[in-house]
Design goal:
Chain lengths: 429, 296, 322
């Protein structure tokens, strides 16, 4: 009974996938779908996301946005599937291998180039005639995370960045009136308070998410402008100096061991709330998290510690993308447009998701005043390397930096070794 | 380990009673209870922290130092977990999957283990070593071929599909466990039945299965637990929120930038209850199994 | 297949092995050739479909530079993934870590498991309650207990450091447990022991039920002390189960995963990576499925050899005694 069913399914899958394969190859992109804005849409759209259940995000999605979409387009149903953030990548990879992806995905920005290189995403700038209208509304940093080999595979659904956050009562207890504003101030504070057994700051790890703002603000860089080369950048003097500063802070015991992988130390958010770490560099979620755990906590937000390069932070957030295999691309496009509409973006902003639509900035700060410093920082924030090899590169950088923190090698030697491994990966594209 | 601790159970019943014996017996019981209490406290510390946190207001950070007592006491996490997140459905789904998996595994594995223990047949050793190999090869990479198989069989978003894959995954372990117990059964018992003219099926059902009841109970406890606790495969093949298992329901409380610990711990505490019930029921079988052993 | 012959030592009495190997005899021969197959077929079919076939596919993948997208061509590279693993220091470091974990956890877990099982086997007040309490770690999810243990081993204000410094007379200062390789492996091993003792207790309890009173009498050890009885009757009586638990604990130790991911995530600088976490990252983060599959088969061979030695050691003991 079962075997009779298997064969036709196999055949159908094989055919569908073959069709995808040729569609995605460079030879025949011409048959690209055009997803007109006016088309009447119906049918089912599946949407995978990793919104948090604890906050109001899922409620906003399932109780407000999806019903509104289904009301606007009668005959459509949206099936939203929540996947825990830490498992999303595995679920996507398995979905690629099994040809079982949904129509629309809310993807972490660093995963988009990888999915694009696997040829499972639809280039939206070719498929959506109104793509440019949407692109023009976005902050450039988040928009750039969708670009892979000259095509845009998605649009920013939400964004965030990190700024310097200070716990004023913890600072007061140390006798400091204002949080360090520059990298030099931070280093000086570390040299003074570390030997007294007090932390001045906490880095949550040693990956690019943690190191990049220090490297960029110190005037260094991770790669060249078109992300093809890291030699001379990640191991350049300014970058090495930025990492050396963190290593020095660690050796002075002015930052906790979280930099070695977030283990053993009290979590940065927790330690910040408890006053153990007077400053952290973190994102807007610190605010809603603090409300439940540390209701007394006052948070002062200032721009990322500045240096020779200015105050440059890193772009985080998610993009919304459509799969090549979607059977209902018109409805999927309509859903993407709807998710990016002002109404939906505002609804999500109320639940804690900062919009990447630059024209909504005034509304954002009205919804949550604490968004303001993050919006300001976003104007100069930079994306991480948009490459399918991001996970591997990040792993290399993390291990190299942690070896240096542990004192096994010098920072310079660690980064020299890292770029030797990274550049061949960047060359693969 | 000291000598007294390791005394076999039979000491208690040696027929050399007398006042001093009784006193030392009581002392021995007290020592044992004391040692076990100390062990038990160590065993349940994290569980106590989990329950206490689940009965405190929800936070996105774990309290440090950990809570041993709830404070301020609230059942709101249970309320939210149960009422706003269809935990009742998840419980039913997990219960269905775990019970059916346990039945399937016990049936096919006891038959397979019996065949391995009772008969010589061609390729027996090959078959058994392939079975053992399945226990030894890490399953991390196998998940992709399994997923493709499940998709081709039309078993995505299917609770029966979960049963099939969990049962397939449980066969090797349970067969390995049961085979040892089948082999311990003395051949003379079976020969007595052969004289009565019993066929092999009847011997299997009436003689062998009852005699390995402690092992069956142990296998049932572990199979149920395995199916109830499984997460990665369920995550891979279940999308439909109505088909979610309890572990998927709990995992859904962990978010991108903060996990709702109160809800996770409330869900985890609830999830432990059915497993404990199955364990207690299984333990009863272990004890009655002992009696069978004694009768023989 | 001598491992299998050795595997038949699942017999209680010390004389077992030789007897079994030669035993054949009429009662082991089925009345019809298909009778054993009829008993074996459902289990073998289910296993073959759900585990066997995907394992073969996985073996195939290990010889390819495997493309995740099914329509992309995978390149056959022969044994390259295997030679790469043999020359990959990170892989061998992860194997060494698993070995350390094994040595730290398996003997202690089994000793404690047997110790508590013997205590819990005898009649006593509150026996069921105790049995439940010892089972609690087994049923509490790995994710939850890993995170709790991470908190217990936190450097600043963690419960373990508090106990060492404030309760016990060790003035170590705050020990950074998870910050370096060996102390982190100890912390992960403590969790492993704690989580698995209850599992061993359950299996040993089932086996102890099969050691009858008569066997103590038969052994002529009526007057012997408790230790002698334990060593000469209880242990031989459950030898098969001890082997079973040992084999599975060793397999389990090589497969340690969630606790490592959540307590250290393999860090710092990959120093606490274990084979499973390394394979998982290789496959699902770096999409190198061919390499991950090759490593999983190398690990399987190592586990097979270790298990084989266990079977052999147990079998030899039997023969010496016989």
């Amino acid at each position: 009974m079962r075997s009779t069913r298997v064969l036709p399914i196999c055949a159908a899958v094989a055919m569908a996938l073959t069709a995808c394969g040729t569609g995605g190859s460079s030879a025949a992109p011409a048959e690209a779908t055009t997803l007109a804005t006016t088309a009447a849409v119906s049918g089912e759209v599946t949407f995978w996301h990793a919104y948090s259940a604890g906050g109001g995000e899922i409620k906003a999605l399932t109780d407000v946005i999806i019903p509104a979409f289904e009301a606007k387009y009668p005959g459509t149903t949206v099936t939203a599937v929540q996947i825990p953030d830490s498992d999303m990548h595995q679920k996507l990879v398995t979905g690629v291998a099994g040809g079982a992806l949904p129509d629309v995905i809310r993807s972490d920005i660093v995963t988009v180039p990888e999915l694009a290189s696997l040829k499972v995403l639809l280039p939206l700038n070719e498929a959506m005639p109104d793509f440019q209208t949407w692109a023009d509304k976005m902050y450039p940093g988040p928009l750039a995370t969708n670009l892979y080999k000259g095509k845009y595979y998605g649009l920013p659904l939400d964004t965030n960045t990190k700024v310097t956050l200070a716990n004023p009562s913890a600072l007061t207890a140390m006798g400091i009136t204002a949080a360090p504003a520059t990298l030099k101030d931070l280093a000086a504070a570390g040299a003074k308070y570390g030997p007294q057994g007090k932390y001045v700051f906490a880095a949550s790890g040693a990956g690019l998410w943690d190191l990049s703002p220090f490297i960029w603000s110190n005037g260094g860089d991770v790669t060249n402008a078109d992300f093809t080369k890291s030699a001379g950048f990640l191991n350049g003097p300014k970058s090495v100096a930025a990492i050396q500063m963190l290593v020095d802070l660690y050796n002075e015991k002015a930052i906790p061991e979280n930099i070695l992988g977030g283990t053993g130390g009290v979590g940065t958010g927790d330690g910040f709330g408890q006053g153990l770490y007077p400053t952290i560099v973190d994102g807007p979620w610190t605010y809603p998290n603090a409300v439940t755990s540390f209701p007394e906590l006052k948070i002062n937000a200032t721009p990322m510690f500045s240096g020779d390069g200015g105050s440059i932070s890193v772009v985080g957030g998610e993009d919304i993308v459509m799969t090549q295999g979607s059977k209902n691309k018109d409805a999927a496009a309509a859903f993407i447009r709807f998710m990016l509409s002002d109404d939906a973006q505002v609804t999500m902003a109320k639940a804690g998701q900062l919009s990447a639509v630059s024209t909504l900035a005034p509304q954002m700060t009205k919804i949550q005043p604490y968004y303001e410093p993050f919006l300001e920082q976003l104007k100069t924030a930079k994306p991480r390397i948009p490459t399918p090899q991001y996970a591997k590169i990040n792993d290399i950088v993390t291990k190299a930096a942690q070896s240096a923190v542990q004192g096994q090698v010098t920072v310079q030697a660690a980064m020299d070794d890292a770029v030797a491994q990274i550049d061949p990966l960047l060359a693969q594209g | 380990m000291s000598t007294t601790n390791a005394a076999p159970p039979s000491t208690a019943d040696t027929p050399r009673a007398g006042m001093s014996m009784k006193r030392s017996k009581n002392l021995w019981v007290s020592v044992r209870v004391l040692v076990l209490t100390a062990g038990a406290i160590l065993m349940i510390v994290p569980f106590v922290i989990m329950v206490a946190t689940s009965l405190s207001p929800n936070t996105t950070t774990l309290p440090n130092p950990p809570k041993f007592l709830p404070g301020p006491f609230t059942i709101s996490n249970y309320d939210i977990a149960w009422n706003e997140n269809s935990f009742a459905t998840f419980f039913l789904n997990s219960g269905y999957v775990a019970i059916l998996t346990t039945i399937v595994v016990l049936v096919v594995s006891s038959m397979l283990a019996f065949a391995f223990a009772r008969f010589d047949f061609p390729f027996k050793n090959v078959a058994f070593s392939l079975l053992l190999a399945g226990l030894m090869i890490p399953q991390v990479v196998v998940i992709v071929p399994q997923f493709i198989l499940a998709k081709n069989l039309g078993l995505i978003d299917s609770l029966n599909g979960l049963v099939l894959f969990y049962a397939g995954g449980g066969v090797a372990f349970t067969t390995f466990l049961l085979r040892g117990f089948f082999e311990r059964i003395p051949r003379e018992l079976e020969e007595a039945m052969t004289v009565d003219g019993a066929g092999i099926v009847r011997k299997f059902l009436r003689l062998y299965l009852p005699l390995v009841r402690p092992a069956l109970a142990t296998a049932a406890i572990f199979t149920f637990l395995g199916a109830w606790d499984e997460y990665v495969w369920a995550l891979t093949v279940i999308n439909d929120v109505h088909k979610r298992t309890i572990q998927l329901g709990i995992a859904a409380f962990s978010g991108e930038h903060g996990t709702a610990w109160g809800l996770v711990f409330a869900g985890s505490t609830l999830a432990v209850i059915p497993v404990i019930i199955v364990y207690i029921a299984g333990q009863k079988q272990l004890i009655s199994g002992q009696m069978t052993g004694a009768v023989k | 297949m001598s491992i299998l012959e050795a595997g038949t030592v699942e017999q209680a009495e010390a004389v077992a092995v030789k007897k079994f190997k030669t035993r054949g005899g009429s009662s082991r021969r089925p009345s019809h050739w298909w009778v054993p197959w009829a008993f074996a077929a459902p289990g073998l079919a289910l296993y073959g479909m759900i585990i066997g076939y995907p394992l073969l596919r996985s073996l195939q993948i290990s010889f390819y530079k495997w493309a995740v997208l099914p329509t992309d061509a995978s390149t056959f590279i022969g044994l390259d993934n295997y030679t790469r693993a043999f020359n990959d220091p990170e892989f061998w470091r992860s194997m060494a870590n698993a070995g350390v974990y094994l040595v730290l956890t398996v003997p202690i877990t089994m000793a404690l498991g047997l110790f508590f099982a013997v205590l819990l086997h005898a009649k006593m007040p509150g026996r069921t309650l105790f049995r439940v309490l010892f089972y609690i770690p087994v049923v509490t999810s790995w994710v939850v207990v890993s995170l709790l243990f991470k908190y217990l081993f936190t450097t600043d204000g963690g419960a373990v450091n508090w106990a060492l410094t404030d309760l016990l007379p060790f003035n170590l200062g705050p020990v950074p447990w998870l910050q370096s390789r060996w102390s982190a492996m100890i912390a992960i091993s403590v969790l492993g022991i704690w989580k698995s003792v209850g599992w061993c207790v359950v299996v040993f309890l089932a086996a102890l039920g099969g050691v009858g009173e008569d066997q103590y009498e038969a052994a002529g050890l009526d007057g012997a002390n408790a230790w002698k009885k334990f060593w000469h009757v209880t242990v031989p009586g459950i030898r098969a189960t001890i082997l079973f638990v040992l084999v599975l604990q060793v397999i389990g130790a090589f497969n340690v995963f969630i606790s490592v991911i959540l307590m250290t995530n393999g860090g710092p600088a990959g120093q606490t990576e274990v084979p499973m976490s390394y394979m998982y990252k290789t496959a699902f983060q770096f999409l190198d499925f061919g390499y991950a599959a090759a490593m999983s088969f190398i690990l399987a061979i190592v586990i097979f050899i270790v298990s084989f030695i266990q079977f052999k050691v147990f079998a030899d003991k039997d023969e010496v005694k016989a």
